[in-house]
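Deviations from the work plan: none for this task. Representative record:
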Amino acid sequence: MFRIGEFAQIAQVSGRQLRFYDQLGLLRPARIDPQTGYRYYSIRQLPRLNSILALKELGLSLEQIGPLLKNEISPAELRAMLTMKRAQLEQSLREEETRLRHIESRIAQIDRRGGIGDYDVVVKSVAATPFLSLRCSCENMDEAVRMVRTVAEDGSRQIRPALRDKLIVVARNDHDDEKLDLEIGFSLMRASNANIRISGDLMLRAGELPAVDTMATIVRPGTNAASHSSFGAIGMWIEANGFEVFGPCREVFLEPITGPPGFEGALVEIQFPVRAAA
Amino acid sequence: MFRIGEFAQIAQVSGRQLRFYDQLGLLRPARIDPQTGYRYYSIRQLPRLNSILALKELGLSLEQIGPLLKNEISPAELRAMLTMKRAQLEQSLREEETRLRHIESRIAQIDRRGGIGDYDVVVKSVAATPFLSLRCSCENMDEAVRMVRTVAEDGSRQIRPALRDKLIVVARNDHDDEKLDLEIGFSLMRASNANIRISGDLMLRAGELPAVDTMATIVRPGTNAASHSSFGAIGMWIEANGFEVFGPCREVFLEPITGPPGFEGALVEIQFPVRAAA
DNA sequence: CTTGACTTTGACGCAGCGTCAAACCGGCAT
DNA sequence: ATGCCGGTTTGACGCTGCGTCAAAGTCAAG
């Protein structure tokens, strides 16, 4: 019979652990002195303790180990538990590898640029949303900016504020032509089938923006210069972290557009649908 | 200005999180209504929140993120933090891979044998210990068993109980001859240079058992039959989990030997020094 | 004015112990 | 017998980053 300290030393565990296992009923001492409350362990309890430690090593929780030791678990059930554990482990392994890549790209960035860059690329998922929009093809940036402004202003006037949500520009230039193939419109609070005619012959048509599970996003001031550097940043991030672009990029105007041309004060969220690179 | 729920929805976080970040001072709401205590967030706080989320993704703790956002951290310090994180991550990746192998070998074992095997292989580290022992070469198992018994009995008589610790047999058969090359003796509570003569011309000489960092161990009843199966079990375990045997195996008798020949009632811990397989 | 949806603060929970604190106990030296 | 030092007991809090109630107050629509 050993007192708790000796037994702990033999088994390479802490006394606190033994007391805790006692409390959980996983490993009661062979004897407890009723006078003093001292716990006395027999060397014959070592196999049981080792079973506990081995099962813990496999990643099982102490709660799960209890029934196992009492042989209340069939091999099939244990197999199922372990298979689940394996799946969880594989999942977390993949996640940690992703994180490792994140960290390494961030370290490389510090080394390259000698400073701290932007931290704000975030992966999120977005739900499908009704979208009242205009498809158009623009020759150059200036034309695109004018068009966005037109849609923004006329849309703001003609769509009820309670229905209108945010201005969104989807870049659909598949084969990057010279031309910009854009879809410009407003997301809506709820579905609506009404098309809306705006200035001249332009027409906003009801449609839907599809949901995207993994969307790499970055929030930036909407000045054109900053927008350009944001695209660079998010592109590097996507590449460095083992993703690839998977669909059309969106620019979400988080604030209603006001002020002078150029959207200087606007706040824009750039969104790239991504998936793990092949 | 958004109330907490809307802002949470936009940023894909929970309201609880926002309140928590407020409490930590990481992200105070743009305004708090002094009447009602309602928190109001500006969309312009989204970049800061995204910074927090991105840094969290890198594995930094919220405590570490605070100073970062206040620009109280130089790039070099950040680099150091991330490098440390990377090392930790790589370490935990290796550990999880090891666990994954453990689990897979356990599943395979269930599938092969249709049942639950022994759970009790445990890795521990053992310290160096003074060792009073006899080196001998035995032709067969019977001779070895007799020799162990002789050392056990004579040693128990001739070494003071306060000095004597446990009977240990080290198997030194390097090139597995027919013969068993054993070292049989007692570990001691403290160093001693006294050699001890036991029955006949046999002599226990003072020496030392070296420390071993990673020792795969299993505790078993000392019956010879059970001992055999234990060796099989531990061998399979070592192989399945990507280790290799690295030195001489030890058998530690956890209880003083009593009773009839064969050590039927004894409790033995088998120890194999191991290292990651090449 | 009544709902029903939101929000506030406050508290507990978690997983597996580590780490005090205050009070006892055991064996050795005197 | 007596001190003393080291081990032991129970009990409580800490940790990480929130999730999840609970009770009470707020806001906006009908």
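The CA atoms of residues 226 and 243 of chain B lie 23 Å apart.
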